[in-house]
Amino acid sequence: MTNLDYHRVQRAEIESWDLAKMEAGIRAQDADFPERVAALLPGEEYKTPAPEGSAQFRKLYDLSELWLAATTEQRAYIRSKMDQKRARQLGAFRAEIRRLAVEDKSEYLLIIALATIAIDNLNCGDSREVILSVQHLLKCSRQIQADWGKIVREVGALAGPAIAALFEDQLRNHPA
């Protein structure tokens, strides 16, 4: 796919969302899920970066874990709440998680970092930025000898269609 194709796929997904129906369906699964998500989303009060130990770090870490454990509909709901400001905050958090993944030699932290890309859902502005983030994470996975293909496929299977396609293309173009 081309960079524009990723954005077309993302746009088509977003245009297909009926947000009121989506929230009603989410509440039927878990009545307080929207409130839990709202409490974890980055707010205006937080600036970048998101250092380990900060309240912002904890919230974004918890949001990433919630996204990983969520149903398909709940993950789409979380993605529907993202915008460019929140995507930037996730990017700052991802940089810190990436650093910690290398420091701790933690494959799980790489999964969290990939989850932030999937949550962001191309709201950062440009698929090329996402591609660079994925390539930075690939470099980290090599440093810690993580099973890159496995973790990208795991998170890609949970992602929206645009990020899933981008992850698959990255695996094809840059195998571990």
Residues in β-strands, percent: under 5%
Shape: globular
Largest sheet: none
Oligomeric form of this entry? single chain
Describe the structure.
This protein is mainly alpha-helical and 176 residues long. The chain contains ten helices and no strands. Helix 6 (84-104) packs parallel to helix 8. It is globular and about 45 Å long. The relative contact order is 0.14.
Write the layout of secondary structure elements.
Blueprint: H1 3-16, H2 19-29, H3 33-40, H4 55-69, H5 72-80, H6 84-104, H7 107-120, H8 127-144, H9 148-158, H10 161-173
Helix pairs in contact: 1-10, 2-5, 4-7, 6-7, 6-8, 7-8, 7-9, 9-10
What's the quick description here?
The chain has 176 residues and is an all-alpha fold.
List keywords for this structure.
single chain; 176 residues; mainly alpha; 10 helices; globular
